[in-house]
Design brief:
392 residues; elongated; alpha+beta; 11 helices
Length: 392
């Protein structure tokens, strides 16, 4: 029997209360964990979810192109680049970013239709509990959570790198070209300092390199410039340098015009461009954070936030699905308008709260992992409250 037939039969059986339990027993026979009715709900839920993505992103693409068209034409952006480099990567990025909104819309729209057609009443009348009815919704939320995490952690970052490079070239450059007051540990007990670094020439000015042994300074190098050799990994050229070697009360000085050396640092370690964290996969983010933390580099909070947010956003699918079902499973005289309005308000507030909570970690002293999970904890409390009030 097709899903459409299930829906038609439910409406028909509402007029024949004596046959309701018999109908649902047939749907739940054979001891399967997911019954035919479950598959009907899963299909409708995921179908509505992907339909909402297509509908809203189609509108978003039109508005985005209308806003950027003049810049694209001004910089002679090729149509192949606009379509394949920009918008082909724009769509999955924003679909993943606003996934909570699409989950709410899908759950509330579909569940409100079930309640309006008295299909949920038929389920409860047949002995199905509210907890049992949640099973297909949670399965659907698990599918969305897995897809959301896989996209955000492994697939979208590669596309975001292409999209951001396209924007830098044809819309508005956002990459950082200089960095100041750079200090990091390049080896055990070896601290490097650069007063100013210009990324376009790969050259740093007022460079110093201090080597410590048993917390005592044993070598101090100063140089006018230090330049990164792009043809070799970790290869640097130091010019106009002076080295002071200290051995107890003895001190020796060495001067030179040029010296090629290997330093375990690269410009990418300290020249951080805007949205650079979005171009890294989760394993790359984890490796980058560990490496920078070991070197004592302080400006890594945005990378930690991005890493933990990808996990937190995936779990949000379960919380927001529970809120949506609890809100819309009750039949309302006003139809789905009220439910949809409340759902949209909650979903937008969740996305806004995610942004605000992230700023707590960047500008305040809140650890990034706590900051990104605060919205989930708060909305989990709202979900539990609405679940207790939902009809059983």
């Amino acid at each position: 029997m097709e899903a459409h037939d299930d829906k038609t039969n439910i409406r028909t059986l509402m007029k024949i209360p004596g046959h309701i339990s018999t109908y649902f027993k047939k749907l739940t026979e054979n001891g399967k964990w997911l019954k035919r009715l479950d598959w009907y709900i899963i299909t409708k839920f995921l179908g509505t979810y992907f339909f909402a993505i297509v509908l809203i992103l189609s509108i978003a693409v039109v508005f985005d192109y209308n806003e950027r068209m003049d810049r694209f034409m001004q910089h002679n952006a090729p149509w192949s680049g606009i379509i394949f480099d920009y918008y082909l990567n724009f769509i999955p990025y924003f679909a993943n970013l606003f996934s909570p909104l699409f989950v709410f819309i899908a759950v509330i729209f579909f569940t409100s239709k079930l309640a309006e057609n008295s299909e949920i009443i038929a389920m409860f009348s047949a002995g199905m509990s509210f907890k049992r009815m949640l099973r297909p919704y949670m399965v659907s939320a698990a599918v969305i959570a897995i897809v959301t995490f896989a996209l955000g952690a492994y697939i979208i970052p590669e596309g975001s790198a292409i999209r951001i490079d396209f924007e830098d070239k044809y819309y508005k450059p956002r990459k950082t070209s200089t960095a100041r007051n750079i200090q990091l540990e390049v080896d055990s007990g070896v601290i490097a300092y650069i007063e100013r670094f210009e990324n376009y020439s790969k050259t740093g000015y007022r460079f110093s390199l201090d080597k410590f042994k048993d917390k005592q300074l044993v070598s101090h190098l100063t140089a006018r410039t230090v330049t990164y050799d792009t043809t070799k990994v970790h290869r640097w050229t130091i010019r106009d340098y002076m080295i002071r070697q200290m051995d107890g009360m003895k001190e020796s000085i060495e001067k030179g015009e040029r010296m090629d050396t290997t330093l375990m640092m690269e410009p990418a370690d300290f020249v951080i461009s805007k949205n650079q964290e979005e171009t890294m996969t989760s394993p790359q983010l984890s490796e980058y954070i560990d490496r920078q933390r070991q070197r004592g580099f302080a400006n890594i909070k945005v990378f930690e936030i991005e890493y933990h947010k990808r996990i937190a956003m995936s779990f949000a699918s379960f919380i927001l699905t529970l809120i949506g079902v609890s809100l819309s499973c009750k039949k309302n005289k006003g139809g789905m308008g009220l439910h949809l309005g409340i759902g949209l308000a909650l979903s937008f507030s969740y996305i806004l709260f995610q942004t605000v909570a992230s700023s707590f970690a960047v500008n305040g002293g809140v650890p990034p992992i706590i900051a990104v999970w605060i919205p989930n904890l708060l909305y989990a409390g709202i979900a539990f409250f609405l679940y207790r009030r939902a009809p059983k």
